[in-house]
Amino acid sequence: MNMGYNNLWGLLIIAGDIWAIINILQSSVSNEKKLVWIIAVVLLPLLGLILWYFLGPRNGSNA
Predict the structure, then answer these.
(1) Rounded Cα–Cα distance for residues 32 and 18 (Å)
(2) Each residue of 3-28: pLDDT tens digit?
(3) Are 41 and 17 in contact (CB under 8 A)?
């Protein structure tokens, strides 16, 4: 039964990472900053997603 919850959490994290990467690519920051954020999200899936959510680039800003 525990395996089902682990799979669900994994799918949610992957979906969040894909959403974050799409938003990073659509942001107006430089390509270098986009690359750094995408690497962070890919290499550290949960932590990268959390960091991006609170500190990452937003549309119209140069974070």
Answers:
(1) 19
(2) 677 888 899 999 999 999 999 999 99
(3) yes
pTM confidence score: 0.80
Cα distance between residue 38 and residue 5, in whole Å: 26
Provide φ and ψ at 27, rounded to 5°. Answer: -75, 165
Cβ-Cβ contacts under 8 Å for 62 (sequence gap 6 or more)? 28, 29
Q: Angle 25-50-63 (CA atoms, 0-180°, nearest 5)?
A: 50
Name the amino acid, one letter, at 59. Answer: N
Amino acid at 62: N
For residue 7, give Cα distances in angstroms to 14, 18, 45: 11, 17, 15
